[in-house]
Amino acid sequence: MTKGLLALSPLLFFLFFYLGVSLLVRDFYAVSITVAFCLTAIYAMVLPDGHSLERRLEIFARGAGDSNVLLMIWVFILAGIFSSVAQAIGAIDATVGLLLSLLPSRVMYAGLFVVSCFISFALGSSVGTIAALVPIASGMATEMGGGAGLITAIIVGGAFFGDNLSFISDTTIAATRTIGVRMKDKFRANVLIALPAALLTLLLYLMLGQEVPEAMVSTTGSWYLMLPYLAVILLAVSGVNVLVALTAGILLSVLVGLGSGSVTSVEVMTTAGKGIAGMSDLIIVTLLAGGLLELIRQRGGIDFIVERLTKRVSGKRSGELSFAALVGLANACTANNTIAILTTGGIVRDLGTRLDVDPRRTASILDITSCIVQAVLPYGAQMLIASGLTGLSVTEILPFMYYPMILSGVLLLSILLRFPYPGRRALPQLTYRSKPERAGTPAS
What is the pLDDT of residues 43-62, one digit of tens each? Predict the structure, then answer.
């Protein structure tokens, strides 16, 4: 037990230092998340584990250089360039002006949530949705007089709705293949939990929107300035890789900017450089987190969680609660919901068979829980990129993450009240496949 707690102690150190000190001084800007991760990484490196310092450095470097980490850094870089160049040519102002002219302010919150849900469901990627939509959050807040943190949280929450339900989402693929169920069956079990949560969230946004005064549209811009954003969204919805979509958006922004005379070639390069520089903190945190979490995994932190949570599970309710806790804690230790599902899926599948839990519920619980945790993880890629694109602190966004909060409540009620349960016509009893297919691990 002592060894397991030591393996997990870097996470506890990070939470204590970052959140504890911020609460103590009553200022969440007092401690930089980058500094917090640097100190945590140093603590993890000097923590004795029976290996030499050189070996610990090797493990840390392997985690920092993981393909998922490097791909996420590319997303950060391209998103930073796209956001800066699009803003420089006036694309953000034009897009904000169009949205404000089409939708009354009182339904803008709800409208943004629906748009985010739709795009993420079609795209199957929370990161792609956030990269495409979050850059307009600050502009919307300025024009509407609302909080940028709330508007950003609306988009991030909607992004996870689609990431959780989409047939092409990597979390859906990972959950269905590791548990051994068909996507459409997992979707039916999943939607009965996610849709009520989304509708409750939508109602909340409609209520909050009634207090927002009508915005005076001061920046409409020319219609062609919106082409880069439209291109990124359409390419993403069409299933094009998010890196390709962002690259196309950058090129189109440059062409539109040069063609309209709003920027020069030198200004484009300067603006692109500023966009990359603005993502530097996120890149550093991502690298540090990748190495840190690999050290935790190698030292048996995840194995310790699995052992402690599955030791005394006996009934279906306790089993399903343990499934959620297991994948949630694994997600906190890996900062990647797909990896968390793949890491715990085999154990959960076997435990579910022993407890006679419907496999579609098992897959649904894994996917929903991983998305809830990933959505509110301060060092998760989605929260970091939303913070970087808006210039907001993570702590300014987290209090407004209403959809994950409501979804977690609906999931808990689903487990405690046992709905939807096996035997209903919509959810006929299924059996596990003997050899579930393997799943890949792309960034979500």
Answer: 999 888 888 889 999 999 99
DSSP assignment of 104-165 equals -GGGHHHHHHHHHHHHHHHH--HHHHHHHHGGGHHHHHHHHT--HHHHHHHHHHHHHHHHHH
- Tell me which residue of 338, 58, 301, 346 sits closest to 179, measured CA to CA: 346
CA distance 437 to 338: 15
Reduced to 3 states (helix: H, G, I; strand: E, B; else coil), residue 50 is: coil
Q: What is the pTM of this model?
A: 0.73
The predicted-structure confidence for 317-366, as pLDDT tens digits, reads as follows 888 998 999 899 888 877 888 878 877 887 788 888 888 888 999 999 99
Q: Enumerate residues 6+ apart whose C-beta is below 8 A from 436.
A: 177, 178, 179, 180, 345, 349
The residue among 359, 328, 332 whose CA lies nearest residue 346 is 359
Look-up of token digits 């849709």: 195
Look at the alpha carbons of 296, 302, 305, 311 in this order and tell me if their dihedral is positive or negative. negative
In whole angstroms, give the CA distance from residue 382 to residue 76: 10
**DSSP string of 369-432?**
HHHHHHHH-TTSHHHHHHHHHHT--HHHHGGG-HHHHHHHHHHHHHHHHT-S-BTBTTS-----
Rounded to the nearest 10 degrees, the angle between the axes of helix 126-133 and helix 242-260 is: 10
